[in-house]
Amino acid sequence: MKIKKGDLVKVITGSKERKGQVGKVLEVDRKNCRVKIENIAPIKRHMKPQRSKKYPEGGIINDFGTIHVSNVMLAPEGV
Length: 79
Prior knowledge:
Layout (H helix, E strand, L loop, with lengths): L7 E4 L10 E8 L4 E4 L4 E6 L11 E6 L1 E3 L3 E3 L5
Antiparallel strand pairs: 1-2, 1-7, 2-3, 3-6, 4-5
């Protein structure tokens, strides 16, 4: 896989809202061949209060979903 964390990528296929967007890669999942891109595929999670250190109070968590690596390509540096 040529795409790494921090690379600038462009979405080449998908829904009308996502296609053509450019963003920075936040995370790469090599096992499932998926990437998490900044400001693309936003999702909301409703969490119950837990004992975990990450979300002890719960609430609505805003995050970004993942996209399969075949649906993105490296964008030119000037974009």
